[in-house]
């Protein structure tokens, strides 16, 4: 009926930092001016950059970018919500993929540390339970893609999003796979 | 290359060989990369990492210890070998505590560069996070067992180059570890000197001269390329 | 210790819990909880840090030369602060303090580049939507994408200022985020002249943008609706480093503490002795500690750090345009101390301008392209490094054994210094704007506006392992809490520990 085809639906992208340092989010912003091209083609859902507090509350999310590993029960809950509501889930950065430097605490016993360190125990129900080990996210949910690096280079984010927007399976270019 | 030189075929390329060559040493001389971790031209082969596994006439062999044979057909870059290498690398990563972001060997690390070249983006397996205390007892050399991949390069260098036999491999299976020849089992009580080749041959960040750290800037490290830019 | 008004409800039974979770447009993860009675009167308001990552603990046992690179992973927004604070501490350990002049200049260049990028990020990407659209504008618009659509010039300036700062960091550390420039006793690289020249060419434009940013921040501040005139006005003492001459000094200086009324209380205090000045308290409902002045104690000894404190704590800013902007800031407030937290944005943009001016001067300094880069001396067993991070005073302290391994680590990050100040701001806003009202999303955002003014880096703030609780709740299928078990520091199991009905609502 209408000759002009509707412009393609904008993809919804959600992002979160679990037990991460926010560096992956900063590297995403390091696409610099390309950010303005990006927002022409995607809408941000829950993200530290927006005030949407729950992922996929109104619309299913197309892409979820997860920074950081899992250090407490709340991280696990948020990650599961991302998995449930995002079509494509991407583990972003060393912490999400390996646990990252926070996993250096894994050889310490959580109970022993408490015994040794405290003067007083924060005991409030508002504080989520810590996990005994910091886990990479693939040990709790299925991930579709992973973007290594600490943080992944900005160009790696750009390429991933370009590939996903074009419906291609993302394969990072060789120079964009970095672990430091 | 003259027509009479003996060669073998590596992924369609002729590779010249000399008496005593292994598949890996001949390929290395020709500038062709067969992925490896535990091989160095300075010491004998040990076939411990198996990353250099190739198909010689269809049979899987470790290129670092298999003699090159004239006329042989050797395959290195096949999809199934690529997958096998990727899995091997992932297993090495989850078996130890390899945290590239905080490691001074980053950019100079053979494990890191092999994994990057193999296209490793995730770990696939459950991480083990073993507990392995750092040995800082030596005044000039740090032993960081969390990063040791049991390649035995230090074992062979200490034995064959330094003539000291400071290191050995002991234990079985997942408990296999690098042993140090000293009454206490600690590096500080061993005969190792920072001038020994064994103190510098480690392909990862397990044996390191102390107080060097991040002295080499990003961009000038061994495996940096023009892509290595933040 | 819990004596501050609204910090702890007298009786939490029957109170309704509202949580702002997660706090958004801040770096890292935290939440605010409110307890309200039947008449919507606020009975308790708290800012919680709910995550920890344990850096202080696992740094123990690491070789010291790794640490300046490792600690960058405390924070991806201001990694340079941690990198340099740790490096300064280890300069002392290796006897390499002061570092050679070339290394000093390059480190300063890196640091001021970070001031530019972090302040740009905070003002434009995170906070500006509140100021441009209003605190209760619709949620979908309240973000940088909304700003890009409605105020494209402002959004572009923010993105480009941040880019410039990030590039300064890259040419001094090899990467925009988590590079490796500083090493104990100096630097591992000088600046490449070609890269320096590329950045110098951009300076006229960048300076103009920075000047515009100050103008914009001032205009937005002065055009706030009248009902926000005293928004989160929370008088507090102010702490920062200053130069020995009283100049604004962000890389290295002496500590100065100014009372809320403007009198200087402590000046010229040696950074290595900070422990004589500050102690830290722990509260059971957050992982973030509460630093306080030893002379005044836990309840009265809290203070503010960051741009609002720094701009007022120094005697002058040693670059001309920023000094002019500082004088305008002081004059606009009649010379009185300013404690309205929204003025922090204005102060922040004055610092951004100072950052660009300082970067410009350092790029002109021939020393940055070479010269000796490393100093060595007599080995010490400990060192303190204090720096003014974008969000305020950052303290790193280490002890190192003869075997080169770190034996003790203490970090007090900027956001931790502001813990009490932020909690006070949350309570001030809750009382002034939410108390007795029907709570709406827009009203809740008022609280976040106050928290955002501090640009809290909750990512940095989650480093502590020290206050980890083990608390287990047994819940019925309907969410009712049946039992609550707590393991104390002595290993004793306590039942029915402090809890409130709100827990059932979680």
Q: Give a short account of the largest sheet of chain A.
A: 5 strands, parallel
In DSSP terms, counting alpha (H) and pi (I) runs of 4 or more, how many helices of chain A? 6
Termini Cα gap of chain A: 54 Å
Largest sheet of chain C: 4 strands, mixed
Multimerization state: heterotrimer
| Low-pLDDT residue intervals, each spanning 5 or more residues of chain C | 464-506
Strand content of chain C is 15-25%
Mean pLDDT of chain C: 87
Number of helices of chain C: 15
Determine the fraction of residues in helical runs of chain A and give it as a percent range: 25-40%
Poorly predicted parts of chain A: none
| Large-scale geometry of chain A | globular
Rough shape of chain C?
globular
What value does the Rg of chain A take, in angstroms? 18 Å
User: Into which percent range does the helicity of residues of chain C fall?
Assistant: 25-40%
* Average pLDDT level of chain A: 87
What does this protein structure show overall?
The complex is a heterotrimer of chains A (180), B (230) and C (506). Chain A has six helices and seven strands; from the N terminus they run βααβββαβααββα. By secondary structure, chain A is an alpha/beta fold. Helices cover 30% and strands 20% of the residues of chain A. By secondary structure, chain B is of the alpha+beta class. Chain B has four helices and nine strands. The mean pLDDT of chain B is 95. Chains in contact: A-B, A-C, B-C. Chains B and C meet through loops of B and helix 2 of C.
Summarize the structure.
Chain B has 230 residues and is an alpha+beta fold. Chain B contains 4 helices and 9 strands; from the N terminus they run E-E-H-E-E-E-H-H-E-H-E-E-E. The mean pLDDT of chain B is 95.
């Amino acid at each position: 009926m209408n000759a002009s085809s509707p412009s393609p639906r904008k993809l919804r992208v959600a992002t979160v930092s679990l037990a991460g340092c926010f560096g992956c989010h900063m590297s995403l912003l390091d696409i610099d001016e390309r950010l303005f091209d990006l927002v022409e083609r995607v809408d941000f859902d829950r993200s530290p950059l927006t005030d949407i507090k729950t992922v996929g509350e109104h619309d299913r999310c197309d892409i979820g970018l997860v920074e950081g590993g899992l250090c407490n029960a709340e991280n696990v809950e948020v990650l599961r919500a991302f998995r449930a509501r995002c079509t494509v889930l991407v583990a972003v950065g060393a912490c999400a993929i390996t646990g990252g430097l926070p996993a250096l605490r894994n050889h310490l016993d959580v109970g022993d540390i408490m015994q040794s360190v405290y003067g007083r125990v924060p005991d409030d129900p508002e504080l989520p339970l810590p996990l005994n080990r910091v886990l990479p996210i693939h040990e709790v949910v299925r991930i579709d893609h992973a973007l290594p690096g600490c943080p992944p280079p900005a160009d790696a984010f750009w390429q991933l999003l370009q590939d996903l927007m074009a419906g291609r399976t993302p394969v990072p270019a060789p120079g964009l796979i970095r672990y430091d | 290359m003259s027509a009479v030189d003996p060669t073998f075929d590596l992924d369609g390329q002729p590779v010249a060989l000399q008496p005593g060559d292994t598949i890996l040493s001949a390929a290395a001389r020709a500038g062709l990369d067969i992925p490896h971790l535990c091989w160095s031209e300075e010491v004998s082969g040990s076939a411990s990492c198996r990353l250099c596994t190739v198909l010689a006439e269809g049979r899987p062999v470790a290129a670092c210890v298999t003699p090159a044979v004239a006329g042989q057909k050797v395959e290195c870059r096949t999809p199934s070998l690529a997958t096998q290498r990727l899995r091997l690398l992932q297993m090495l990563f989850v078996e130890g505590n390899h945290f590239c972001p905080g490691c001074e060997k980053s950019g100079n690390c053979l494990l890191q560069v092999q994994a990057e070249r193999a296209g490793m983006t995730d770990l696939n397996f459950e991480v083990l996070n073993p507990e392995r205390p750092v040995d800082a007892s030596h005044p000039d050399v740090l032993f960081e067992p969390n990063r040791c991949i049991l390649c035995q390069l230090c074992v062979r260098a200490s034995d064959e180059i330094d003539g000291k036999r400071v290191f050995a491999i002991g234990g079985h299976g997942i408990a296999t570890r690098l042993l140090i020849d000293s009454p206490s089992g600690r590096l500080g009580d061993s005969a190792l000197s920072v001038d020994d080749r064994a103190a510098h041959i480690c392909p990862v960040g397990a044996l390191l001269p102390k107080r060097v750290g991040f002295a080499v800037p990003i961009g000038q490290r061994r495996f940096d390329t023009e892509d290595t830019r933040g | 210790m819990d004596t501050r008004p609204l910090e702890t409800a007298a009786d939490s039974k029957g109170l309704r819990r509202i949580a702002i979770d997660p706090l958004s447009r801040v770096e890292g993860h935290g939440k605010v909880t409110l307890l309200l009675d039947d008449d919507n009167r606020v009975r308790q308001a708290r800012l919680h840090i709910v995550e920890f990552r344990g850096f202080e603990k696992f740094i123990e046992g690491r070789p010291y030369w790794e640490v300046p690179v490792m600690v960058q992973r405390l924070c991806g927004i201001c990694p340079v602060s941690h990198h340099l604070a740790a490096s300064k501490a280890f300069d002392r350990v290796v006897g390499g303090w002061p570092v050679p002049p070339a290394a000093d200049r390059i480190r300063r260049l890196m640091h001021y580049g970070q001031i530019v990028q972090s302040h740009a990020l905070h003002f434009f990407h995170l906070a500006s939507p509140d100021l441009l659209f209003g605190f209760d504008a619709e949620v979908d618009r309240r973000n940088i994408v909304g700003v890009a659509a409605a105020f494209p010039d402002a959004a572009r300036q923010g993105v480009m200022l941040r880019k410039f700062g990030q590039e300064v960091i890259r040419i001094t550390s090899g990467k925009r985020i988590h590079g490796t420039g500083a090493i104990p006793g100096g630097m591992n690289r000088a600046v490449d002249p070609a890269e320096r020249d590329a950045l110098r060419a951009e300076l006229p434009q960048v300076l103009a943008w920075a000047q515009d940013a100050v103008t914009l921040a001032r205009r937005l501040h002065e055009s706030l609706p009248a009902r926000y005139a005293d928004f989160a006005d929370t008088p507090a003492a102010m702490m920062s480093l200053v130069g020995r001459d009283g100049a604004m000094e962000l890389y290295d200086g002496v500590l100065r503490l100014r009372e809320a009324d403007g009198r200087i209380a402590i000046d010229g205090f040696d950074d290595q002795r900070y422990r004589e000045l500050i102690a830290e308290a722990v509260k059971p409902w957050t992982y973030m500690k509460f630093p306080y002045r030893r002379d005044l104690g836990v309840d009265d000894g809290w203070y503010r750090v960051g741009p609002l404190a720094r701009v007022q704590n120094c005697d002058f800013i040693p670059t001309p345009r920023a000094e002019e902007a500082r004088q305008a800031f002081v004059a606009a407030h009649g010379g009185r101390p300013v404690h309205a937290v929204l003025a922090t944005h204005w102060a922040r943009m004055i610092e951004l301008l100072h950052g660009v001016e300082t970067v410009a001067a350092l790029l002109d300094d021939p020393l940055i392209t070479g010269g000796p880069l490393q100093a060595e001396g007599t080995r010490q067993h400990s060192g303190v490094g204090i720096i003014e991070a974008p969000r305020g005073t950052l303290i790193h302290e280490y002890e190192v054994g003869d075997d080169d391994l770190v034996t003790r680590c203490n970090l007090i990050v900027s956001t931790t210094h502001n813990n009490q100040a932020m909690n006070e701001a949350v309570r001030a806003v809750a009382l002034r704007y939410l108390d007795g009202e029907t709570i709406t999303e827009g009203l809740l955002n008022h609280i976040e506006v106050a928290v955002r003014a501090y640009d809290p880096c909750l990512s940095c703030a989650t480093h502590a392992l020290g206050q980890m609780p083990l608390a287990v709740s047994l819940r019925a299928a309907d969410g009712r809490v049946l039992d609550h078990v707590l393991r104390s520091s002595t290993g004793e199991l306590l039942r029915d520990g402090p809890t409130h009905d709100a827990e059932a609502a979680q």
